[in-house]
């Protein structure tokens, strides 16, 4: 379990993380979301003792990271896949980590097999692709068989098979009762992986809730209905006190109604339906809605090129 209490980090006048309090619990995959510059990387670095908090506290299974004996046996982390000696082979990179944490040599072979790098174990890391580097970084995180796993953008550089593999790996680790904390900008992937979300913006906590509740609380849900008897269905729904929004594409959008109830009303009044489907926003849409005012870096594409980039004709 990871516990953050009033965690704060300042760089001069800049507050990167602001009074952040939350608990990352075992047995589920917790997604860590936020716009660029929100303070995610700084938070994760403080969890691992790489940055010292300006205020507040962070504990790993009840202890500060720098007090952990053999820390890889408590928490395994992937923050930067390039953080390795390029001149070492994959095997020797992991062996150095193992020896410094009292982990047997046999475990190196196990994790290389787990991440699919056994065939290139003797090759130098500097020749690895981005995806292979990610797999090696994940192997390092798994090396101590820790109770807590922390990943920052773990699918970066992976092919579709690799993405599917790391998704299932994180789910299986959580199913074993481990704490899994993952940060990613890929909303579609996070929606398939995470059970719980911690969302920050400008260093502040914006949400700490389940995936389902997050989407429900930050988006509009409705039922889309199509029928050749549009006016008759409108009369039926209005008569039942149901709010209906008419769209320009021929569909009706019913707020606050259940598909089952709408279908039963249509059947009772002999109204033919061509579509009856519940609609809910994606995680990406809900995230954009919640963090709209917390985005630090905005791109603008509606201005003429000379206003966005400056008119090259005026330059010498």
Question: What is the helix content?
Answer: 25-40%
Strand arrangement across the biggest beta sheet: 5-6-7-3-8-9
Low-confidence stretches: 305-316
Query: Treating each run of at least 4 consecutive H or I residues as one helix, how many helices?
Result: 11
Question: How far apart are the termini?
Answer: 59 Å
Backbone CA Rg: 25 Å
Query: Given the C-alpha coordinates, what overall shape results?
Result: elongated
Q: How can the largest sheet be summarized?
A: 6 strands, mixed
Sheet-strand content, in percent, reads 15-25%
Molecular structure report:
- This protein has 316 residues and is an alpha/beta fold.
- It is 34% helix and 24% strand.
- It has eleven helices and 13 strands.
- The strands form three sheets. Strands 5-6-7-3-8-9 form a six-stranded mixed β-sheet, sandwiched between helices.
- Helix 2 (90-100) packs across helix 3 (105-115), helix 3 packs across helix 4 (130-142) and helix 7 (211-217) crosses helix 10.
- It starts with a strand and ends in a 7-residue tail after the last helix.
């Amino acid at each position: 379990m990871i516990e953050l209490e009033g965690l704060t980090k300042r760089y001069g006048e800049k507050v990167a993380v602001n009074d952040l309090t939350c608990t990352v619990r075992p047995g589920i995959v917790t997604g860590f979301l936020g716009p660029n510059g929100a303070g995610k990387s700084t938070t994760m670095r403080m969890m691992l003792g790489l940055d010292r908090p300006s205020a507040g506290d962070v504990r790993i299974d009840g202890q500060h990271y720098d007090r952990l004996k053999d820390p890889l046996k408590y928490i395994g982390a992937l923050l930067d896949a390039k953080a390795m000696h390029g001149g070492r082979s994959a095997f020797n990179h992991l062996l150095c980590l193992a020896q410094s944490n009292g982990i047997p040599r046999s475990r190196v072979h196990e994790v290389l097999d787990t991440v699919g790098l056994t065939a290139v174990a003797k090759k130098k890391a500097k020749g690895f692709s981005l995806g292979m580097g990610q797999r090696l970084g994940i192997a390092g995180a798994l090396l101590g068989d820790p109770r807590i796993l922390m990943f920052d953008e773990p699918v970066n550089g992976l092919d579709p098979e690799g993405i599917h593999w790391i998704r299932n790996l994180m789910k299986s680790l959580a199913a074993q009762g481990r704490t899994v904390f993952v940060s990613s900008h890929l909303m579609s992937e996070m929606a398939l992986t995470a059970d719980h979300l911690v969302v920050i913006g400008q260093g502040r906590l914006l949400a700490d809730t389940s995936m389902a509740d997050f989407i429900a609380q930050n988006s509009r849900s409705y039922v889309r209905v199509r029928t050749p008897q549009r006016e008759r269905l409108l009369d039926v729904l209005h008569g039942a006190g149901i709010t209906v929004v008419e769209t320009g594409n021929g569909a009706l959008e019913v707020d606050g109604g259940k598909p089952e109830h709408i279908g039963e009303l249509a059947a009772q009044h002999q109204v033919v339906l061509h579509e009856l489907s519940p609609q809910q926003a994606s995680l990406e849409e809900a995230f954009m809605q919640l963090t709209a005012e917390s985005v630090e870096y905005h791109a603008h594409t509606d201005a003429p090129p000379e206003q966005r980039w400056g008119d090259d004709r005026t330059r010498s």
